[in-house]
Amino acid sequence: MISSRWTPYLFLAPALAGLLIFRLIPIVVAAGGSLTGVSLMGDMRFVGLENFEYLMTDPEFWSSLNITLLFNVIINPLQLAVAFGLALLVFRPLRGVWLYRTLLVLPMAVSTGISAVLFGLFLDGNLGPLNGFLEWIGIGAQPFHRSADQALYTLIGIATWKGAGYWMLFLLAGLYSIPSTVHEAAAIDGASAWQRFRHVTLPLMRKPMAFVLVADTAINFLFFAPVYILTSGGPSGSTSVLMFQAYRAAFTFSDIGRSLAVSTILLAIILVIVVLEFRLLRSPEERA
Amino acid sequence: MSTMTIDNLRKSFGATEILRGIDLDVADGEFVALVGPSGCGKSTLLRLIAGLEEASSGSISIDGRDVTRLPPKGRDVAMVFQNYALYPHLTVRANMGFSLKLRGDDKATIDSKVTDAAAVLGLDALLERYPGQLSGGQRQRVATGRAIVRDPKLFLFDEPLSNLDAKLRAQMRTEIKALHQRLKNTMIYVTHDQIEAMTLADRIVVMQAGRIEQQGAPLDLYDRPANAFVGGFLGSPAMNFVKGILGSGLFLAEDGTQLPVPDGFDAEQGRSVLWGVRPEAIGPVDQGFSGVVEVVEPTGPDTQLLVRVAGQPLVVLMHKRMRVSPGDQMTLGVQGADIHLFDAADGRRLHL
Ligand SMILES: Nc1ncnc2c1ncn2[C@@H]1O[C@H](COP(=O)(O)OP(=O)(O)O)[C@@H](O)[C@H]1O
Ligand SMILES: [Mg+2]
Question: Which regions in chain B score pLDDT beneath 70?
Answer without folding.
Answer: 1
